[in-house]
Write a structure and sequence with these properties.
By secondary structure, the chain is an alpha/beta fold. It is built from six helices and eight strands. It has helices spanning 33-48, 71-74, 79-85, 87-96, 113-120, 142-145, and strands spanning 7-14, 17-22, 54-59, 64-66, 102-106, 109-111, 123-126, 131-133. Helix 1 packs parallel to helix 4 (87-96) and helix 4 (87-96) packs parallel to helix 5.
Length: 146
């Protein structure tokens, strides 16, 4: 398994289960290009691992699963460059291509892209503290398909 900057992968919690933790708690696990790329790489690697039968995805910290897109990273970009990059549509396509069940454990905020990431997964388990919202005007992920 590769080493990741913004993810923690734990294969020891339960036999056959991989726990993937988005680990940017200071940014409320906001989705930037690095975490999206790492998540795709991790999920595709785990999908090929015959010892893994299911994947649990969660966020670190108490406040948020994912508080949306990383606005600091997006701020200097133009609409055209963001549209061409197509990061979140690519994330949706690649996560949807994982054949093993992905169970998302939501504790705290799942806003915008975080709510969409949860909807890309097969099952959503939400704590009593979970708050979901995907009210952005345009989307390239599963909200578009609703």
């Amino acid at each position: 398994m590769p080493v990741f900057q913004d993810l923690i992968i734990d294969l020891q919690k339960a036999p056959g289960v991989a726990l993937v933790t988005l680990n940017r708690p200071k940014a409320l696990n906001a989705l930037n290009s690095n975490i999206c790329n790492e998540l795709v790489q991790a999920l595709e690697t785990l999908d090929k691992d015959t010892s893994v039968r299911a994947i649990v995805l969660t966020g670190s910290g108490e406040k948020a699963f994912v508080a949306g897109a990383d606005i600091k990273e997006m701020q200097p970009k133009t609409f055209v460059s963001t549209f061409k990059e197509n990061l979140f549509a690519e994330l949706n396509n690649r996560v949807s291509g994982v054949r093993k069940p992905i169970i998302v454990a939501v504790n705290g905020f799942a806003l915008g892209g975080g709510c969409e990431l949860a909807m890309m997964c097969d099952f959503i388990i939400a704590s009593e503290k979970a708050q979901n919202s995907a009210n952005q005007k345009s989307s390239s992920g599963p909200t578009r398909e609703l």
